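Batch manifest, entry 17 of 40.
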Amino acid sequence: MLFETRDLTFGYEDVTLLQQVNLTMHEGDRIGLIGANGVGKTTFLRLILGELAADGGQIVQRKGLLTGVLHQHDQLDSHLTIWQEMQSAFADVIRAEEEMRSIERQLTAFGEDDVAYRRLVGEHDRLDKYVLSREGDRRDVRIKTVLGGMGFADFDQPIAHLSGGEKTRLALSKLLLSDLDLLVLDEPTNHLDVDTLSWLEKYLERYKNGLLIVSHDRYFLDKTVRKIWDVEGKTITEWPGNYSKARQVKAEVVAAIQKRYDKQQEQIASMLDYAQRNMARASTSKSAKSRLHRIEGMDVIDRPTAYAKPPRLRFDILAESNRDVLRVDDLRLTAGDQVLAEHLSFGVQKGERVAIVGKNGTGKSTLLKTLLGLVNNHTDHYNVLPDPQSSCQVGGAKAVRQVNGAIWYGKNLRLSYYDQENINLDPEASVLAELWFRFPAMTQTYARSKLANLLFGEDDMDKRVGSLSGGEKAKLALAIVTCEGSNLLYFDEPTNHLDLATREALEEALKTYEGTLIFVSHDRYFINAVATRVLELTKEGVKSYEGNYNDYLAAKEREKQPVEKPETPLKPKTSGTGKRTKEDRRQEANRRDAIAKTERRLEQVEQEIEDLTAKLCAGGNWKDLAEWDKSLGAAKEEEERLFALLETLMDD
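Output type: structure tokens
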């Protein structure tokens, strides 16, 4: 055990954030802490780190627990160079090595039979084992590996010269090199590009000690954690698996409880109806009273609580576009005087959902704006797009867009553009006016309902747009796009500032959208859920990959593999007479024995799966259902592993 909370309770003034929270984190646990903004995630971290005192309950930590923490805005400030600071993560190893050198000098003063000699040799061995356990003999290699993976090249650069984001990355690098029992990371992906994220995910997959991560990056959580702590309704519930698995398990458990609740309520209603109709008649009053007694003796199931109303989004189109939506032919992408990419050529067909990816600074957002004619509209050859009406104007741009001569659009198009900075919103307008006044034919009631779908309450309607949070502005901009009826959507970082519930609602809406979508996003989970094609933008041009983000990564890995010539399969060893040797027979016997053992274990696991499935169908309390589902998931994983092992043994 690393730590556990026992009936942990905490609040501010008259608002309770956490109530009777009971959780345990064991050695090697990899846990993701999730929840809506403001529900108490950061508060919980501060409680377990000792930065806040609980109002009730207690937190029990393992004695001598070594914890490292990266808060959201932590920066490593130091007068040292990058290399010197990273060496300080091994300060205890360096001290141990210095003590070993001192002991080696002292040994020259004693004979091997002296008690002092044996004592010093014993101490030297102890220190040597500690240095090896911390991989002290490889520390320079480890430091170079971590710094390179985290995007640092000049190790002699003074830390004082780094930017804020670089100092945050360096603080994380030092934690990764430190000898810790528990590593706590609060939004660690904020300042990382795709390559660095990929490296960090692989590094943390091999991390052997405790890991507690707070993150809105669902793809990152899927890659790094094995449990989820879900902060909701003043408590924290543990779910098995990474983010995607935990979300699925939670939905199944809630649905099962809802089904049992509905069935019991129908039964109670039926019994009450019978009692009311038959209580007054002497011949049936006894039977009626019996039903009332049965109701009183029931273990009534609590209705599953919906702690937060999910937002609702839907993107309808007013008209179908033609099959050919967009064609780009030999486009030169620039930002001012800087050339970002040469010879960009690609096409987009009706119904595609195209994600544009690439390293930071390659010009992904600039490409969107160039396609829209908002920048780089500098030739004499224009293709005039249909008037999207005043409601669809982008950032003050003209309603009729003229586009660079290397860009051609198809017919019957109506465009909408979601800008990550939301510059097309009027900061002086009210929330209601910003939506309603864009659409003259829209009733106020309808406008209010569209905003309510994005969880704007009555008190929010008269708020100034300029006073809204980043998440609220994003939702207002999305509400406007849902009203435009466009069949071609351009989205630039649409999940920035959105909470998890709104991100998931947006994903579901776009997956059923019947128009065409072209978007830029750093949210890999979002790309994975939405994209049907990925365009990778580089300085050399653009390359197309069919499928979602995982398909894109798989294709990139295949590109790295060298083309190998097929080898002639090796023939099994036999004696000179062609007969199998004694060693062949021994290996064959071992293989048959391994197959038999695997088959027996597979039968046991299949029975476990059947029993656990029966338990889940029969129902139980919330905790039992969660535990059974956790065991079922583990059993299914073992079943898959055993099948794979059996297949390998059979093929040998």
